Amino acid sequence: MKDLNNKVAVVTGAGSGIGRSLAKALAARGCRLAISDVNETGLAETAAELKDADVRSYRLDVSDREAVYAHADEVVRDFGQVNLVINNAGVALSASVREMTDEDFKWIMDIDFWGVAHGSRAFLPHLIASGDGHVVNISSVFGLIGVPKQSAYNAAKFAVRGFTESLRQEMKLEGQPVSVSCVHPGGIRTNIANSARMGKSENGAAQRKGFEKLAMTTPDKAAETIVKGILRDESRILVGPDAWGIDAINRLLGSAYQPLVERFSRKNLYI
Length: 271
Known about the structure:
Elements lengths: L7 E4 L5 H12 L3 E6 L2 H10 L5 E5 L5 H15 L4 E4 L5 E2 L7 H29 L2 E6 L12 H23 L4 E8 L11 E2 L5 H11 L4 H13 L4 E4 L1 H13 L4 H11 L3
Parallel strand pairs: 1-2, 1-4, 2-3, 4-6, 5-8, 6-7, 7-9
Helix pairs in contact: 1-7, 3-4, 4-5
């Protein structure tokens, strides 16, 4: 996909953050947009910023498999085809393995992993039919390294990475006209930390403040990086200098990165 003009792009989680910025970046390149979110107020705000674009909004809970498959069919009816799907919707959870509830564990996996899997599988036949498709799944730097109190988020984001990398290989081996990219953002200045669920002993205010200090990249900059990665057909798109640094440490040290994370966590998370 060398040109995005007049391509039909689907963006989940478009009501705020990276999703909203992606919608704006794609619209600026001439995309026709199907944007969705469970937050209808935020989604309406995004749509208002795209008033000059060909855009339709849909309320969508990505954890609902039947709703996602119905959404794929609806988008094709509305636009005639789909070329690009960005499975961006996500949530956060900070809790130790001991304290994490089954409900919270299921909540984050249903959205952060199953939402991506549902979106990829529901739209894949339509992307193949377009003759020029691309799947973009949002993982995280926490899909590259494990971090204390992020076991559930790690589990979801590692799963997204494995699923996406496998899908890319399948599309190539089958000779299908669909590219696949996995995105690993570092700290992005969005509301995900403010809306995160916390374990009962977590100092939520302190953790959110710490995240704000570490968030190095704006959503608009993240979106530009992702769009450029799509146009270059990159298999792995790293977003932000911290993402590049974490990826390098992981490649250089392998599992030996863990003592570094432990030292950082002792100072910043166990407070």
